[in-house]
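Structure ticket #2291
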Amino acid sequence: MKQEEVPQDKSNLSSKNVRELCYATDKDGNYTTVLSEGWEPKTIALNNSIQDIEERIELAKADVKAGKTSPIVYFMELHKMDLIVLSDYVGMWKWRVKRHFKPSVFAKLNDKILNKYAEAFEVTVAQLKNYKGE
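Resolution: structure written out below.
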């Protein structure tokens, strides 16, 4: 891509003075770096990803409220984690973390285990225990 062809479409990030470094060729054919404010297809993909994340957060919130899952699932989605990432943060096997997704199992967790989750989610144990989906 030539320097003058580097996309400069406005994106969600451009309002925050964030630009992406791209490589392009100058008029002599040498590679150089150019700052881009965004690219429309990338902006669309980013917006779709953000929308998917927001939907998963709302679904997790509704499931906690309905008693289908524990608050761990909501906070995991809120912090854009998955099972693998969360299990690494808390230092537990994936199967064990997944088991804690069940409200009946979550209710029996001791404060030592809950503290690991609270630290990973940057909340207090009380906030984690008392979250009811509101």
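Closing remark: The helical segments are 40-65, 71-78, 83-90, 94-99, 103-106, 111-121, 125-130.
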